UniProtKB/TrEMBL annotation:
Taxonomic superkingdom: Eukaryota
UniProt cross-references to InterPro entries, sorted A to Z: Leu-rich_rpt, Leu-rich_rpt_typical-subtyp, LRR_dom_sf, LRR_N_plant-typ, RLP29
BP terms from Gene Ontology: defense response; response to other organism
Pfam family, one: LRRNT_2
Matches recorded under PROSITE patterns: LRR (PS51450)
Organism for this UniProt entry: Tagetes erecta (African marigold)
Protein's cellular compartments: Membrane
Protein name (record): Leucine-rich repeat-containing N-terminal plant-type domain-containing protein
């Protein structure tokens, strides 16, 4: 054999090696396992997964056969991101996923993955973002989720998870966003990790009281969305004093009381912007000190059992929904000054005068008989 032919063969051999063996084999095995755990009839010709052809190309090898790389990002020879297209893939997450140990991001949103959330997912030490929203996952949230020490974002909303939420989230000290809304979760609000910024448990069957020990560590919380659950009891005054709080939504629960803040408790450094306590069973009078929050721009207390007069201080709040209560008397005149720009509703109450030309009064007041009954004639 001539030396030219030998050197040609050598060049060929090295080329074959570098182009076929780039991705580490354990990652390839894991990806193959993922593809084969998906019902093939849901892998349509235009989808990412359809383009994953392990016989002709290597997931991480340059030059990129771009079609294969759809759904994946690599760093050197390891897969770092798995972000599937929302193509309606139906399947389960295979346990071999735990071999993708360099994964930083998983996003499988808007598909039809089902079965329990596999605990093998929790053996991915570098995972920072786990998004499984809008799938059909069921079963409980395993407490071993706390093994994901680097997790920053967890979104498992719009699935069919049940059972109570484990308290082990407290050890996820990097977690800033926790979204478990629109599931079938029960039990109390779990203890929260200390760096959480956004909490959403909307539309579940979470029950019990708002307990101080749950929130004490969470000094960074800006958004608390707990609407459409079965929470009950008093909304305690400390709740509004969580230091970073901006938005609170407790609507559609069964809270019965609102603990009024003492003037000495009022925090004028508060960042509170929007509070929604609508569709509860709150009784008593409107607390005068909500308007004292310097940033408060939106307050909803619709559809409760609130009584008494509307304090004039409420004219400081630019979006005000107080409809569907038993409020009486004359609403403060400043509400109707031309320069006061308040939107919202005061309808469906027992107010004496509510000028129909005002947007606030489009919805009519309650019939006289209902108001008379509620106040036993004394109003
Ligand atoms: C997750 O993927 C969906 C597409 O299915 C995309 O719309 C969404 O923005 C992604 N989320 C993040 C945080 O990257
Ligand atoms: C609060 O929750 C209710 C009911 O789920 C929803 O209609 C409303 O848009 C939410 N947000 C705010 C800011 O009120
Ligand atoms: C809140 O509850 C009321 C009464 O139970 C219901 O009519 C309304 O649709 C609920 N709103 C949401 C957003 O679930």
């Amino acid at each position: 054999m001539s030396t030219t032919i030998i050197s040609l063969l050598l060049i060929l051999a090295t080329t074959v090696i570098t182009t076929t063996a780039t991705t580490v084999s354990s990652d390839i095995t894991a990806l193959k396992s993922l593809k084969s755990s998906i019902n093939p009839t849901t892998i349509l010709s235009y989808t990412c997964l359809h383009s994953w052809d392990f016989t002709t190309s290597d997931p991480c090898s340059p030059p990129h056969t771009t079609h294969f790389l759809c759904g994946l990002t690599c760093s050197a020879n390891r897969v770092t991101q798995l972000t599937l297209d929302p193509a309606g893939y139906s399947g389960t997450i295979p346990s071999l996923i735990s071999q993708l140990t360099q994964l930083i991001t998983i996003n499988l949103s808007n598909n039809k993955f089902h079965g329990p959330i596999p605990t093998s997912l929790f053996f991915l030490p570098n995972l920072q973002t786990l998004i499984l929203t809008s799938n059909s996952f069921s079963g409980t949230i395993p407490p071993t989720i706390s093994l994901l020490k680097n997790l920053q974002t967890l979104d498992i909303s719009y699935n069919s998870l049940s059972g109570s939420i484990p308290n082990s989230f407290t050890s996820l000290t990097h977690l800033t966003l926790l979204d478990l809304s629109f599931n079938k979760l029960t039990g109390p609000i779990p203890n929260l990790p200390k760096n959480l910024i956004q909490l959403s448990l909307k539309h579940n069957s979470i029950s019990g009281y708002l307990q101080k020990r749950v929130f004490t560590e969470s000094t960074q919380l800006e958004v608390i969305e707990l609407s459409q659950n079965s929470l009950t009891g008093t909304i305690p005054s400390w709740f509004f004093l969580i230091p970073s709080l901006q938005q609170i939504n407790l609507s559609n629960n069964t809270f019965t009381n609102l603990q009024v803040l003492k003037p000495s408790q009022l925090s004028f450094t508060s960042n509170l912007i929007a509070v929604n306590l609508g569709f509860n069973k709150l009784s008593g009078e409107l607390p005068v000190n909500f308007p004292a929050y310097p940033m408060l721009a939106s307050l909803t207390m619709s559809n409760n059992k609130l009584r008494g007069r509307i304090p004039w201080e409420y004219s400081r709040i630019s979006r005000l929904f107080l409809d569907g209560n038993l409020l009486i008397g004359l609403p403060p005149k400043v509400f109707f000054y031309r320069k006061t720009l308040i939107s919202g509703s005061l309808g469906d109450n027992c107010l004496k005068i509510c000028p129909k030309w005002s947007e606030l009064c489009v919805k009519l007041q309650k019939p006289f008989s209902i108001c008379q009954k509620a106040y036993r004639g004394k109003w």
